[in-house]
Design goal:
Length: about 525
């Protein structure tokens, strides 16, 4: 069936306002239905998407953020008809974009007095004036930007004259210097049943405000790339016209080129509303500059820029963390630079054949000779009293319930092996974020504990992000190897039912009132059992 192309009667001419979204439509029939090509018919200029022709499969051309330059005649025509030599059908659509035209007129307003008649006023004219100062005179009731600056807050009045209007309408708005204003005017025409409302949101959109306390922003972590959860709020969203989208720009730190895309906004943004957008496919370990610009129908608002940096991820949400030191990066534990020697990752199957007998474990905590654990080697040249310190990744705790009396509780547990006649000490410390110089003692044990693994459990209530530090201290001789395995942190207090009645208690128990919001005594328990 040959194609047929028509324009609905109500679709040409189309009248719209600058900054709106408009749809031009041509109805096409025929089997099979051809693709429609849109182009400008009145001049040789590019279409809104930058191409000379724009394809449409349903006959609709959608233009976002219409500008005055888009006023004109648009041609819709059928494309090549499946390879057959069929003459293209075409139709024309007229688009008229209304926009603000400012003219200066004589207008004076005396505070708390009647308004003098407007001179040389076009029909449906609107004038704005702050107190006694003359301002712009606007034709057609359209206003895209109006700013004023006084030494003190102004009292602008909205003056409307549209013969045969019944009476002008006055509206007073108080606003500070240099800030945006929303002004709304209503005027009664010759027929009282018809009420015309003009509403303008003056000034461009305010800058977004990035939220820097995102809980676990590194939400996806793969070998070569990572993803980042970007969050922000919008400053004074109701002070300007509705935000239609955000223009997101991102570039690698040190590079010149910005990559940009638009983030569409559905509905109105509320003041204080937290907006989230996930940045994906970021290259490790690069840092990126992120620029965010709000867009209203009047154009772009103020931009804001921040830098996001890759950091080794912590346990997501810290609901449950388990580490058996089996992976290559030992669960992101690191060696402390201030100690005397390092902890070593080892399994019974891979240990040195010249290992010191009568000390150290014969298998990991599960009994596997292939399983790994961390230990300190106390053979020469190590000296008595030297320390090896192993530091955990930084754990981000769950946000505190504003109605709760205490911080979230966690059960911290691990297995330790202390066998040999020269065993020194094993200490565990808690370090809070922002307090790197302060280490709170959590647990301590020293001396020979037998040729078996023991478990320790400690309740902790950190008020902020924290790290754990395992400190092994060399004893008086070479038979003093200490090992740890299966470190875990689980949300909630340690189950009392899991602790036997005869559990051992270390001699270094102390009060950690500064870790809670209220003073408490933390009981540090050691579960001992023979494998």
């Amino acid at each position: 069936v040959p194609p047929n192309l028509t324009v609905p009667q109500e679709k040409s001419p189309l009248v719209t306002r600058e900054g709106d979204t408009i749809e031009l439509q041509c109805q096409v029939t025929g089997k099979p239905k051809p693709i429609i090509l849109w182009s400008r018919a009145d001049k040789e200029v590019a279409m809104p998407d930058g191409a000379m022709q724009t394809e449409s499969y349903d006959g609709i051309l959608r233009i976002v953020n219409v500008s005055r330059e888009m006023t004109g005649t648009y041609r819709c025509q059928t494309s090549q008809y499946n390879g057959f030599n069929v003459k293209p059908r075409e139709a024309l659509v007229q688009l008229i974009v209304q926009y603000l035209h400012l003219t200066r007129q004589n207008l004076s307003v005396k505070k708390n007095e009647d308004v003098e008649p407007l001179t040389k006023a076009d029909r449906s004219s609107v004038g704005w004036a702050p107190s006694h100062q003359v301002m712009s005179f606007i034709s057609s009731g359209w206003l895209t930007l109006c700013s004023f600056a006084n030494e003190s807050p102004a009292l602008p009045s909205c003056l409307l004259a549209d013969p045969p209007a019944v009476e002008p309408t006055f509206l007073e708005i108080r606003q500070g210097q240099g800030r945006s204003i929303t002004m709304s005017c209503r005027v009664l025409r010759a027929y009282p049943t018809r009420v015309l409302t003009y509403e303008w949101r003056l000034g461009k959109a305010y800058a977004p405000e990035f939220y820097y306390d995102t809980y676990n922003p590194l939400w996806q972590n793969r070998p070569r790339v990572y993803s980042y959860s970007l969050q922000w709020t919008q400053m004074n969203p109701n002070a300007v016209d509705r935000i239609l989208a955000y223009r997101l720009g991102i570039r690698q730190a040190g590079q010149q080129r910005w990559w940009e895309q638009e983030i569409t906004v559905n509905g109105n943004i509320q003041k204080g509303e937290l907006i989230t957008y996930n940045l994906t496919e970021l290259i490790k370990p690069e840092a990126y500059e992120v620029r965010l610009t709000p867009i209203t129908r009047f154009g772009e608002g103020d931009s804001t820029i921040r830098v996001i940096k890759y950091s080794a991820p912590v346990n997501p949400h810290l609901r449950e963390f388990h580490c058996g030191f089996e992976d290559g990066n030992i669960c992101l534990f690191t060696q402390d630079d201030t100690d005397n020697f390092d902890w070593t990752k080892q399994s019974t199957a891979t240990r040195d054949t010249k290992y010191t007998p009568n000390t150290g474990p014969n298998a990991d905590r599960t009994g596997s000779k292939e399983g790994f654990y961390m230990y300190i080697e106390t053979s020469r040249p190590r000296l008595e009293g030297e320390k090896a310190r192993l530091v955990s990744p930084l754990f981000s705790v769950a946000p505190k319930n504003p109605y709760g009396a205490t911080n979230t509780a966690y059960c911290f547990s691990f297995y330790y092996h202390m066998y040999g006649q020269h065993i020194g000490s094993l200490n565990v410390y808690l370090r809070l974020k922002g307090q790197t110089a302060i280490e709170n003692p959590l647990w301590s044990s020293s001396g020979n504990k037998g040729q078996h693994w023991n478990q320790a459990r400690v309740n902790i209530n950190p008020p902020t992000s924290f790290q754990l530090i395992f400190e092994g201290i060399r004893g008086p001789g070479i038979e003093g190897d200490i090992a740890i395995d299966d470190v875990s942190i689980v949300e909630g207090e340690c189950m009392k039912s899991d602790q036997p009645a005869n559990n051992l208690r270390s001699g270094a128990v102390g009060t950690l009132a500064h870790i809670r919001l209220i003073p408490v005594i933390i009981l540090m328990s050691v579960l001992s059992h023979q494998r």
